[in-house]
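User: Fold this one for me? It's Citrate synthase.
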Amino acid sequence: MSTEPEYRPGLEDVPAAKSAVSFLDGKKARLEYRGIPVEVLAKESCFEEVAWLLIKGDLPTQKQLAEFDHDLRHRRAIHYRLKDLVKCLPADGHPMDALHATVAALGMFYPCKTVSDPAKNWDATLRLVAAMPTVVTAFARARRGEEILEPRADLDHSANFYYMLTGKEPTPATRKVLDACLILHAEHTMNASTFTARVTGSTLANPYHVVGAAIGSLAGPLHGGANEEVLHQLAEIGSVENVKPWLDAKRAADPKFKVMGLGHRVYKVKDGRATVVQEVAEQAFAETSRPKTYEIALELEKYCEGIYGPKGIYPNVDFYSGVVYQSLGIPVDVFTPIFAIARVAGWLAHWHEQLVGNRIFRPEQISTGKHDVKYVPLAERP
Ligand SMILES: CC(=O)SCCNC(=O)CCNC(=O)[C@H](O)C(C)(C)COP(=O)(O)OP(=O)(O)OC[C@H]1O[C@@H](n2cnc3c(N)ncnc32)[C@H](O)[C@@H]1OP(=O)(O)O
Ligand SMILES: O=C([O-])CC(=O)C(=O)O
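Assistant: Here's what I get for Citrate synthase.
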């Protein structure tokens, strides 16, 4: 009898950790952060409160939230040499790469060398949550030759992000839309980037390495990078009338063609976050106007339902988020960095959880290579 363990490609259904940070039922599209439905948080809460909830485990008291908010506001500014670094990066480079590089450098300017000091771990946690919007906006502006703006301590997290990006204060509706999007993207059980964060954390690497590794994982088009791809896809389609001919042609050319923003390992119904993003979008469009891309996305969802619905493939959170960001005037390649600005809360929550009773991740492989191969000296090879 074979003793070979069962191999599950992509670790499908294999538990990689025990976690109390969030809960997901993919058949019912139910997502909870520390037991609270995400839809409720998106409507009632703010990103700062949700970050505390995820990392600390419970809703903050009024005093805790006030202190947390104060501490975040005072860690937004980055060292002037980090701004110089951002200015030196290639202007045509991707903002996710700039974020990746600058988060590593952030860890050099504000070190947390070992992870055994809870006070230093907490300081790094605050720094990462607070400073990532500063880094993203610094690169977004510097590459266009615009002045890098100092964070404003009189604005909350979402409003300050929008201000640092655009130089304008958001309207209350825009702030709410952005904040709700950050809340919706803050955490999602054992997704690829969170798993990456936990694996990295399990080596006792410092939190900047943990977040840097997770940023790299999030960047891929099968994960967070899909929100940008969706917008390219909608631009390629170009019109509501072209949805059917476009998809028919793609599928004819490649039966395995993947529609970006569709499908999920866990959800077999429409991602509840996508529905909330649409509700939020309608608020955003009340101030601007319903963009053509949104009409195309709606038509694409409708046409895809007939084709992919029977297989349980529906829109995920990335399907509509980009349309919202675009309507706020945010450049397409900044969409995935916004995801990272939100998800850092979840990554850090998992990092703190991983450190309690930590054991290094070291799974097994099923070896498929050769054995006892004779080494042939180079001179004897053709
Ligand atoms: C925040 C997030 O990370 S949400 C996910 C964002 N990613 C995307 O939107 C990219 C497009 N989607 C995908 O590539 C996938 O659905 C993933 C990566 C999200 C999930 O991948 P997996 O769970 O490994 O599913 P897998 O890729 O094996 O697909 C299973 C089947 O559904 C099909 N399928 C999955 N997604 C799609 C899609 N977007 N369009 C068309 N068909 C799809 C596959 O072709 C495959 O079909 P088959 O059984 O006939 O071979
Ligand atoms: O859970 C996943 O695999 C991907 C996802 O939706 C997320 O990270 O938000």
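One thing worth pointing out: The chain has a mean pLDDT of 96.
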